[in-house]
Amino acid sequence: MTEPILPRIRPEIAALAPYRQGKQAGPDAFKLSSNENPFEPLPSVLEALAHTTPINRYPDATATRLRERLAARYGVDLDQVHVASGSVAILYQLVQAAASVGDEVVYAWRSFEAYPGLPLVAGATGVPIPLSADARHDLDAMADAVTDRTRAVLLCTPNNPTGPIITADEFTAFVARVPADVLIILDEAYAEFVTAEDAVDGLGARVFEDHPNVVVLRTFSKAYGLAGLRVGYAIGHAKVLDAARATGIPLSVTAAAETAAIASLDAEGELLDRVAVIVERRTALVTALRAQGWEVPDSQANFVWLPTGDRTDEIAAAFLAADIVVRPFSGDGIRISVGEEPSIDRVLHVASTVR
Ligand code: PMP
């Protein structure tokens, strides 16, 4: 049989692998592959969800109630807040808005797995800049890589999957080196887990005020435990966010997601107590892994990085055999989310046996 003629697909898209999700875990396994929150949803959030607006109606396209809450919280205007179905959606919207054919997008690598696809989908060229030896952003090299074709720079702090932060001083120096007409996206998906006092805090420091080219991204997926509902937000200059609103798929934030996000802000104290527990477990995990001889970078997020190099696949298989699903990056390392309490000892046991 002859092959049917199929519609032409852009070659760079045909060659692009779809987003790779961590393996699904069996009922007895710990799923530590997607940096999810291990706690059950709060009863108050579930209760609010049960009263979501009738689902035969479309949601509010701009999630006004949630934006009002966030605007009040951060002391910004309503149009300085943008909400989308996950912060990954906002990454796509902003890069689409800023970069096109012939343009460049600079990002650190290794970093969040979605980054390489962002310029590609926009028709632009990605410029990955290797992390430094201590698994941090090499901001000097990133600033050196900015050319007159650069339209956007992606900064991830704490860096997924390695864990270290960008400091406030490093960020200030970097912004000073980048032309003011280049978009800088400060991806702070894990901000609530940061305890280092010298870390950049894009919202606390209101960096977007002095620098309208900086947009700060946050999410309800991690610290707030709403990964399954898909809701994230950006704070920045209204005109820059208008561009994200223009490229976004209309009506993609569901009423359920907006309701749950608002209920989570109402229950923030309880949720941040859980974050503190995860941070304690992170400290215990990093300390014990280092005691076993692993060179674990300083993690300020809800995951840790094991630099397993050539042994990555074999070691990931050993974790899986012990019913722990981790996220291996072949030839490089393994990212392990900080999960349920009993998962910590199990992770440490496997880590010691493969060491
Ligand atoms: N940025 C970073 C650095 C991430 O690790 C993730 C999730 N893995 C996201 C953005 C996207 O999160 P979400 O779309 O769930 O808000």
Automatic annotation (TrEMBL):
Subunit-structure text: Homodimer.
The family this protein is said to belong to: Belongs to the class-II pyridoxal-phosphate-dependent aminotransferase family.
EC number(s) reported in the record: 2.6.1.57
Modified residues (N6-(pyridoxal phosphate)lysine): K222
Role played: Aminotransferase that catalyzes the conversion of aromatic amino acids and 2-oxoglutarate into corresponding aromatic oxo acids and L-glutamate.
Gene that this polypeptide is encoded by: pat
Protein name per UniProt: Aromatic amino acid aminotransferase
Catalysis: reaction(s): an aromatic L-alpha-amino acid + 2-oxoglutarate = an aromatic oxo-acid + L-glutamate
Domain Aminotransferase class I/classII large: residue ranges: 28-348
Pfam family, one: Aminotran_1_2
